[in-house]
Design a protein that fits this description.
The protein has 618 residues and is α/β, with parallel strands linked by helices. It is 31% helix and 22% strand. The termini are far apart.
């Protein structure tokens, strides 16, 4: 069975999908109606020469357009390529085209339609329906890019059977005899949004509500308002989304907001913080949100989303670990909450039925419960492999089908817990970075010293030895500007801890940081800027200074927002501040693209000029 079989079952279904687009337009379509729309799009693709097996890059802003395109590809056995972000940079687009042998590009953006490889979505919808092309279970049905950076991330090849199994496995939370109602704001280019919140209700024939992610980010209160109006029973969120929604809860109207229908809201991520989960539930409790609705879970693109989940009705399990016991292959020591020396982790739950998991030591040996090791997964939901993996990279999955996830974790009482990342890939706000690439950039910037990038305290820290503070600042700024990742804090040490094999022991640095070992040694990394900045640049610098908690002297015309410590949360605050000060709405992805002070100030200046010369000012 594969994903195409799910679509065929819905050819005459009256169940509905409701779409909330970026500009606020809302529309509803039955599954049967969407099936017909997908056939019309398939006809347009086939007339344009897109044949079975060809790759199609999806550069679609519209939520409805994105879903229709996926269905059309699956019905025509065409391979959609899920690209992080609907508007990738020109350089990133060029890399994608080269990797996929100049695929077709499907877009609904008029400016992107100038691409010679582009097919303009609206113009493909006016002809005859296309012909369905059979899909075999082993055929590629989605090339899912992991959340990317300025370098080209890895791309998981997910088969039609993988997508079917992912939807089937995640349907385990569906209550017998209940027609669940799914509401989603997560991007459909992310495996959590696609499988967990679109394919699961599709597989079961349930009504679903799909929100534009940018719309949620600009108005997080909409998640709760639409959940109430739609009477949603299932949803999902990242930790970032929970925090954002909790901060907007005071904008909800108690008289018109009822969240009591919500049954399960999955929250994913390796670094779930109990305080954020508890704060969210406390802030939403006055509106009917029940304790225990939030369900921690763990998954990844390579496993078609799901690995394990916290079963509905089961209490959340919080583990407290003595830091001295942390070591790969070692048995962890669990302590009482009264013990001051502890690390806190949230247990993520029981395994999905379709997979097996082993926790292994560095030698590849399976470890018993309560021992820390590297998580390996095997199952029908695990990808076929990576699309054109790096030369010399080990096969993943291996010959026996086991996938090395690169995550450290352990079993306790049958539940899996993720402790941290182990391999060279680090994750920050949903984007993956190759750790060694970042560290090499730091070293090249100063020409000496040893550097280590460590996830610590919810951010990325730069540790170094054999350099001075000026070198540390130069290295941190180089990493931020080259990779677009905020490395705004750093620590100088006389020597970095080493593993038995002589490498830098980043796990030891992370654990020590979590215990407060370097609190007195942290340096803010920035370049000295001009004392004053002229006109609109000074006004923008004032906003940066307030939101980033930095002095004006730390901000120059060429300062990079991310390099100074700005992340996606602060970017949202900045968009709100701009709207409050100048009455101009700017999307966060536009601000991220214009990341220097000069570029951002000029973007706002152009918008102010357009506003003044518009119809009202003409």
């Amino acid at each position: 069975m594969n994903i195409q079989h799910c679509l065929h079952r819905l050819e005459n279904s009256a169940a509905t999908l409701t779409f909330l687009e970026a500009e606020g337009a809302e529309s509803t379509q039955s599954y049967a109606g969407l099936y017909r729309s997908a056939l019309l799009l398939l006809g347009g693709l086939q007339r344009a020469g897109v044949r079975p097996g060809r790759h199609v890059l999806l550069r679609l802003r519209g939520v409805r357009a994105h879903v229709t395109a996926l269905w059309a590809c699956w019905l025509g056995n065409i391979v959609p390529v899920s690209v992080p972000g609907a508007n990738p940079s020109d350089s990133f687009s060029a890399l994608l085209k080269a990797r996929h042998d100049h695929p077709a590009v499907l877009t609904d953006r008029p400016e992107a339609a100038q691409d010679p490889d582009a097919l303009f979505y609206p113009s493909l919808m006016g002809g005859e329906e296309g012909s369905v092309q059979p899909m075999r279970d082993q055929d590629p049905a989605l090339l899912q890019y992991t959340s990317g950076t300025t370098s080209l991330p890895r791309c998981a090849v997910l088969t039609g059977a993988n997508l079917y199994e992912g939807a089937l496995a995640s349907s385990v939370i569906v209550r017998p005899g209940v027609r669940e109602r799914y509401l989603n704001w997560l991007p459909l280019s992310h495996i959590f949004g696609l499988v967990g919140n679109h394919l699961v209700p599709l597989y079961n024939g349930f009504d679903q509500y799909l929100m534009d992610t940018g719309r949620f980010v600009s108005e997080p209160v909409l998640w709760m308002q639409k959940s109430s109006a739609f009477r949603a029973t299932v949803s999902g969120s990242s930790l970032f989304g929970l925090d954002l929604a909790a901060r907007s809860a005071d904008r909800l109207d108690p008289e018109n907001t009822d969240l009591s229908s919500m049954y399960v809201c999955f929250c994913g991520g390796e670094d779930l913080k109990p305080a954020v989960l508890e704060n969210f539930e406390n802030r939403l409790a006055p509106f009917g949100w029940k304790p225990g609705v939030l369900r921690p879970a763990y998954g990844l693109s390579e496993a078609t989303m799901g690995v394990c989940y916290n079963p509905p009705g089961a209490p959340m399990r919080i583990h407290r670990i003595h830091p001295a016991s942390v070591g790969i292959g070692q048995k962890l020591r669990f302590v009482d909450s009264e013990d001051g020396q502890r690390l806190t982790r949230v247990a993520l739950g029981v395994l999905d039925d379709c997979n097996d998991v082993e926790v292994r030591g560095l030698a590849g040996d399976a470890l018993p419960e309560e021992h820390l090791g590297i998580i390996h997964i095997k199952g029908t939901n695990v990808m076929a492999g990576y699309w054109r993996p790096e030369e010399g990279a080990p096969p993943n999955p291996d010959a026996q089908g086991w996938l090395d996830t690169g995550d450290l974790g352990y079993f306790k009482d049958g539940w899996l817990t993720v402790f941290s990342r182990y391999k060279d890939v680090v994750c920050y706000h949903g984007a993956n970075y190759v750790r060694t690439d970042l560290e090499q950039t730091a070293r090249e910037a100063v020409g000496r010293g040893t550097f280590a990038i460590v996830e610590a305290g919810g951010t990325l820290m730069l540790f170094a030895d054999s350099v001075d503070l000026a070198d540390l600042c130069r290295a941190g700024n180089a990493v931020s500007e080259a990779w677009g990742v905020p490395v705004s804090k750093g620590v100088l040490l006389p020597g970095l801890p080493r593993t038995a094999k002589g490498g830098v022991d980043r796990l030891a640095l992370s654990v020590q940081w979590e215990q407060g070992a370097f609190a007195e040694d942290v340096h803010t990394l920035y370049r000295e800027g001009e004392a004053t900045l002229p006109g609109p640049y000074g006004a923008m610098a004032a906003l940066w200074s307030r939101l980033l908690a930095l002095p004006h002297r730390a901000i120059s015309m060429d300062s990079h927002f991310v390099a100074l410590g700005g992340d996606s949360l602060v970017l949202i605050d900045l968009a709100c501040a701009i709207e409050e000060q100048w009455g101009i709405f700017v999307e966060t992805d536009e601000l991220a693209a214009a990341a220097t002070l000069r570029e951002m100030a000029e973007l706002i200046g152009a918008r102010r000029k357009d506003k003044a010369s518009g119809p009202a000012g003409a």
